[in-house]
Amino acid sequence: MIVAPSLLAADFLHLEREVGMVNNSEADWLHLDIMDGAFVPNISFGFPVVEAVASVCRKPLDVHLMVERPEQWVERLARLGATFMNVHVETARHLHRTVQTIRDAGMRPAVTLCPATPIMLLEDIITDVDMVLLMSVNPGFGGQKFIPATIDRIKRLRELIDRTASHALIEVDGGINHATAAAVATAGADAVVAGTAVFGAPDPKAEIAFYHSL
Question: Could you tell me which of 136, 142, 149 has the C-alpha nearest to residue 192?
Answer without folding.
Answer: 136
